[in-house]
């Protein structure tokens, strides 16, 4: 009888002991993770004040912008520009240095784009692996965009670009195309600023099927040995000597018979630096009532952490979220397309995956979703960051 009466008590003590062991282990693991990150969470505000590691946890005011589209294209507009360039020596006036002079007319179907990038920190070069262009597509034009942290005003300069393992051509990148150059540097070296560059790509450098591996080299960088941007275990980091190359992306425009003739592309240029809430209203003109939206974000300095070459995630800091939707007052569309708690893709836009596993610090992300912006005159992109210093460089909206 006594044994029967003691059984519930013994069971309760066993459960309590298990729970206690779990809690002790959880707090021990949590403490080890905080030590691995270099500082406990309660002291993470000291991670970045003015320089190093790409973080700034000082309170950040919301940054906002409202801009017109820097480039708007559909099949008719590409044909108009191509005819103008083919009948005169003067290029069509545009802040975007792209030429359609070699486009064979008429354009075959509606237009779309593909984009891919590579991180170039501490190397100044890399291979961009462009995929996703359907067979039978007609090449229209291409742009190369890159970014760096540098000191002082910078002029245009040449880089090598072309198909991997082939002869590279010189392409000239200019910072003048970007309306907000330079942007504040993303928390690495206060002696520098972030500069973005845009270069037209010669059609001869694009593979016949458009998809392919493309090499870029000659980007400005103080370090070219491929080291990770952070320390690794007991090994110190490489330092933040300027210039610091961040990354490069290739944007290709093409036409295909399977795409609606009234498909449209809107391109907006930054750069804009943020480490808190960042809101961008892009005025585009009427957005076609087609079924699909495709949106790409190109930018610098995304990362998941700082320790172990930045490969260990710090969710309290790197949990960025991306929203796209109507400009307030002009519709009720709002979609979380990236980030935790409801995103169509719960990963971050700013994880540096263009350099996975190394080097990080450059992102080129694209998502496709249903069109809830039909007939509206623009759209809003909003980022919620928590201290990771980031620069968005290019936004592209495709409607098809």
Task: Explain what the structure shows.
With 400 residues, the chain is mainly β. The chain contains three helices and 19 strands. The strands form four sheets. Strands 1-13-18-15-16 form a five-stranded mixed beta sheet, with no helix packed on it. It has a five-stranded antiparallel beta sheet with strand order 2-12-19-14-17. Strands 3-11-5-9-8 form a five-stranded antiparallel beta sheet, with no helix packed on it.
What is the CA-based Rg, rounded? 24 Å
Written as H for each helix and E for each strand, in order along the chain, the element string is HEEHEEEEEEEEEEEEHEEEEE
Secondary structural class: mainly beta
Helix content: 10-25%
Please describe the biggest sheet, giving its number of strands, its sense, and whether it closes into a barrel. Answer: 5 strands, mixed
Catalogue the unreliable spans.
Answer: 1-51
Q: What is the approximate shape?
A: globular
> β content, as a range?
35-45%
How many helical stretches?
3
Mean pLDDT: 86
Query: In total, how many beta strands?
Result: 19
N- to C-terminal separation?
78 Å
> Can you list the strand order of the major beta sheet?
1-13-18-15-16
């Amino acid at each position: 009888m006594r044994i029967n009466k003691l059984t519930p008590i013994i069971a309760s003590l066993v459960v309590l002991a298990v729970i206690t062991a779990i809690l002790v282990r959880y707090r021990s693991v949590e403490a080890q993770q905080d030590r691995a990150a270099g500082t406990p969470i309660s002291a993470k505000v000291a991670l970045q004040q003015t320089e190093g590691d790409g973080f700034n946890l000082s309170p950040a005011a919301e940054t906002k912008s409202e801009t017109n589209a820097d480039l708007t294209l559909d099949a008719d507009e590409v044909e108009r520009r191509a005819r103008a360039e083919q009948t005169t020596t003067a290029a069509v006036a545009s802040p975007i240095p792209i030429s359609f002079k070699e486009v064979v007319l008429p354009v075959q179907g509606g237009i779309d784009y593909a984009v891919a990038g590579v991180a170039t920190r501490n190397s100044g070069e890399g291979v961009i692996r462009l995929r996703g262009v359907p067979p039978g597509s007609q090449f229209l034009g291409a742009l190369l965009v890159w970014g760096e942290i540098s000191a002082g005003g910078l002029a245009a300069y040449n880089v090598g670009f072309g198909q991997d393992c082939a002869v590279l051509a010189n392409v000239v990148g200019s910072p003048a195309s970007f309306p907000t150059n330079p942007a504040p540097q993303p928390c690495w070296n206060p002696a520098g600023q972030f500069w973005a560059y845009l270069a037209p790509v010669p059609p001869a450098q694009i593979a016949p099927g458009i998809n392919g591996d493309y090499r870029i080299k000659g980007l400005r960088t103080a370090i070219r040995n491929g080291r990770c941007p952070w320390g690794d275990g007991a090994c110190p980091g490489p330092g933040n000597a300027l210039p610091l190359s961040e990354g490069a992306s290739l944007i290709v425009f093409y036409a295909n018979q399977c795409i609606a003739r009234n498909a449209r592309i809107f391109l907006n240029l930054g750069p804009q630096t943020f480490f808190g809430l960042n809101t961008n209203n892009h005025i585009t003109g009427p957005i076609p009532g087609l079924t699909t939206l495709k949106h790409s974000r190109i930018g610098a300095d995304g990362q998941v952490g700082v320790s172990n070459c930045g490969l260990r995630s710090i969710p309290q800091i790197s949990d960025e979220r991306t929203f796209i939707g109507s400009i307030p007052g002009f519709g009720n569309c709002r979609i979380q397309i990236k980030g935790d708690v409801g995103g169509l893709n719960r990963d971050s836009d700013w994880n540096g995956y263009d350099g996975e596993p190394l080097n990080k610090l450059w992102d080129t992300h694209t998502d496709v979703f249903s069109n809830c912006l039909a007939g509206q005159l623009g759209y809003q992109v909003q980022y919620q960051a928590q201290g990771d210093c980031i620069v968005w460089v290019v936004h592209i909206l495709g409607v098809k």
